[in-house]
Write a structure and sequence with these properties.
4 copies of one chain form a homotetramer. The first copy, chain A, is mainly α. Chain A has helices at about 5-15, 25-45, 50, 55-80, 85-100. Chain A starts with a helix and ends with a helix. Chains A, B, C, D: It holds the Pfam family MazG-like. Chains A, B, C, D: GO terms for molecular function: nucleoside triphosphate diphosphatase activity.
Chain lengths: ~100, ~100, ~100, ~100
């Protein structure tokens, strides 16, 4: 996943719509959390087994919500000056130390 | 970000701990949403301006939470058979169509 | 707020629709969290000042989401055998001890 | 549940700690959502059946989180000028119309 390219394209959309004023880290975290709940909503009344066998329409919906979340997290990382790849690798290395 | 490599390392941790039984998409979405709230918590009492100038400790904490969220989303995508890069690109292309 | 009356009416709706099978505490907590995000969504792009002066339509929407959350929490308390009034009072007394 | 009494006691704690400045509806909704996620966290790795039979410690924890959520919602309702009992009753009446 080419994070620099994705971020540049997100910033182009943002700037063309004059949205930067709304993109405080506080607001972007809220927006990401709202998209996350839309992902959770897909699963809320399903059994765990059903969640492993989503029908095509729900699966496509889940993909859209994952996309929304990752895009907001990329915008958030850019505002905070965080490198998503680096923070993900740091957390993964930490889990490897603790759990393997 | 090398999604295949990250996912393989996540699966190694998961399998070494016999966690697959817990990793239904339903549970992974819940877990991701809990990490998301830990990200939101960093910002809840800050003004938008303060959220743009996080002190180093809070910034590091934010990075850890972003890491946790992305890792759970990678596990979720693997369970659902979704390609994170593809769903992110599809959503971005959709936003480009709608907003530019 | 008459919690027993509200809970009895919720259970009547639930039973008439054969929804009890879906009302595990796990699912009810998820559902409440989704409604909570719908409340958060109202505020995500507003400044704090704007959030203090909601237009009538957004205010009505906020009320609906608060209603949804409280109703799911009542269903959850009933499933868990918790008395909402008692747990709220216990938490408030705890805050009084710690912060006053 | 005596909402007026509970709200008055919450406001006493708030004012004694000079917290009103932080209590914008935006922030209170965020704070409530964080407490909600702490409730969800209790259930994230449990099966639905396990969630119906919480051990005493987890049940007490769930009660504390429900308490936190309701208290933040009461503060939010007070800031917005919403009557929690009225909005809950309106939503319940709406569900009765739609589902019974």
């Amino acid at each position: 996943m080419n994070l620099d390219e994705l971020t540049a394209r997100l910033h182009a959309i943002r700037d063309q719509n004059d949205w930067r004023q709304f993109h405080s880290p506080k607001n972007l975290a809220m927006a990401a959390s709202v998209e996350m709940a839309e992902l959770v909503e897909i699963f809320q009344w399903l059994s765990e087994d059903q969640s492993r066998q989503l029908p095509a329409e729900k699966l496509a919906h889940a993909g859209q919500e994952v996309g929304d979340i990752v895009l907001y997290l990329l915008l958030l990382c850019a505002e905070l000056g965080l490198d998503m790849d680096a923070v993900v690798r740091a957390k993964l290395a930490d889990s490897e130390r603790r759990f393997t």
